[in-house]
Amino acid sequence: MSDKGIIDIHSHSVMTHYRNKRSGVPACKEIIKEVWPLVDKIMGNQTFRSYNTQADFGKLANNDVFAIIISLYPLERKWFMPKLSNGNLMIELISNITGYSKSNIRKLTAEEPINYFADLVGEYEYLKEQIKKQCNGKNFKIAVDYDDFARNLQSGNTVSIILSIEGASSLGSNIPEKFLEKRPSKVMVSDYNKFYRDNVFKMKSWGPNNDSTHSPFIIGLSHHFWNMLCGHCESLPFFFNQRVGKESGITPAGWKMIEDLLSTNDKNGVPNKTRRILIDVKHMSPKARKSYYEYLENKNLKVPIIFSHAAVGDAPSLDSFIRKTEDHKRFKNPKNYFNTSTLSLNDEDIKQVIKTDGIIGIVLHEGRIASNKAMKGKAYGVKNNKKLIDNLEQEIKDLETRKRRTGNVTKKNRLMRKINNRLIKIGKAKEQIKHAYVCMIMANIFRVVETTYKMDNNYQGKGWDHVCIGSDYDGMINKLDYLGTANEFPELRNRFLKFLKQPEPLLGFDESWTTKKLKDLQFGISPDKLIEMFFSENVKSFFKKFYNVNYLIKKSN
After folding, report:
1. Are strands 65-72 and 158-165 parallel, antiparallel or unpaired?
2. Which of 164, 223, 165, 227 lies closest to 195 in space, CA to CA?
3. Cis link prior to 503 (omega < 30° from 0)?
4. Among 449, 295, 255, 276, which residue's Cα sits nearest to residue 362?
5. Which domains does the chain have, with CATH numbers?
6. 3-state DSSP assignment of residue 304
7. Which of 42, 158, 180, 382 would staple 152 via disulfide (CB 3.0–4.6 Å)?
């Protein structure tokens, strides 16, 4: 492995393969699935025209990935109960969006009561099977702790896998479908005990001989839909019903799960028998995040705040999004290019990450890294360049048809020159799109850095210590066109480095972000060092602090 390796803290590298396992395509190989043009229009991203797995083991092995946190995720049933319809047409559409087979979707929609946990165990077992063989000369191995990760790194040909879970709904079983509509105020601890608690401790025992060594490092408490535990942010297009529980807080059932996840006690209360599992606050509503931060502070729990795959917004506080608060009354969505949705980090979130020695994985998702205004605006021209590429590609098809039909050599040559001219224009448009994405991601990073610096002069430059990649690859995202797979990690590195060496003003994000200001915000740290921190060193440090047996199963806080 190269010394300039990469660590991604949030990817769904086996999810699509598991859902399509009947196809026989192993996790080492790419899955390619053609999708409808309708999906492109709904999702607003031309790369949905074909679904290529973005972080299969083959791509990871070929691009110097040191380690990857693979997130397991049983698809929530509300995906199959959208507002429009639940017929064959909708199953076809969901199959196209998710990459899952229609037979799998039909099987899941027919399941009653719902058993997410069996699906979770199935994906875990599938992962264990897939890592038994080498892939492109690399071994894949579940790293049981930091020391194991360090040994894998030293070996030079082993990619470490660390487990996480997206959404605590994954731990539910025997849940009647009607409970997906149960109001937050009606949820009790008894619901947790009935539908979740046994599975929490079964998951904590994962590993050879139930030794807990495969116990997930991180779990998200909420995801896209209501799970009776924790309020979620709005995150999906209009035809999915996220209404129940949206933007609500943590229920008594959720607090009991948090207690069990962060505890080292076993099911019967015997201490130091299970690993604590850290909470990923991505997808938790602002109200839920606020109460969780207060809970950790009041309990004096030394637990890091983790945003595994997130973008950064431009809002001063969590209260900016919580109804009936003074901040909410005063807050006006800024007109800059940041994506200020409740999913994005605000200043309060950033400060909590820094204070708790947490980490922020910057998501590689077009729909999150900037506002729609930025995508449509002339400054970056993402949407306009995509339309231009569409038109030019159609023109090329027409010209190629004409070239095939003519027998005149002079006409053939003239048509070929026109085709080449359009190919040059396509290349320039793609380059502009990729450059725009780099600027947008850099704006997210600089927002963390500047907000951290404004906390206190003692935090000068410390924001750079807490950012990394959390791609969300293969997580049904609007991937970045032409930079949207693990194959492009090396190119992203080079483009980020080039930007840091000569920053481009990001005035659409912050009117003070001139080239000089962005240079100043590097605080004298060399661009090469900053790149190494972002792509791997920060995560190594995070693993060393928190992914060790002393922290995960220790007697005190």
Report:
1. parallel
2. 227
3. no
4. 449
5. 10-370+466-489+530-552 (3.20.20.140)
6. coil
7. 158
Tokens of 434: 């990729």
pLDDT of 86 above 60: no
- Asked if 204 and 163 count as a contact pair (C-beta separation under 8 A), the reply is no
CA distance 46 to 390: 9
* pTM score: 0.95
What is the CB neighbour count within 10 angstroms for residue 427? 11
The stretches of 344-470 forming alpha helices (DSSP H) are: 347-355, 366-369, 372-376, 382-405, 409-455
**362-151-301 Cα angle (round to 5):** 55
CA distance 479 to 481: 6
Residue 34 phi/psi, 5-degree rounding, is -70, 145
- pLDDT tens-digit series, residues 118-142: 999 999 999 999 999 999 999 999 9
- Other CB atoms within 10 Å distance of the CB of residue 256: 21
Distances (CA, A) of 221 to 231, 250, 354, 429, 556: 9, 9, 21, 40, 23
What percent of the chain stands above pLDDT 90?
82
The count of other CB atoms within 10 Å of the CB of residue 19 is 23
Give me the pLDDT at residue 236, please: 87
Tell me if residue 230 falls in helix, strand or coil: strand
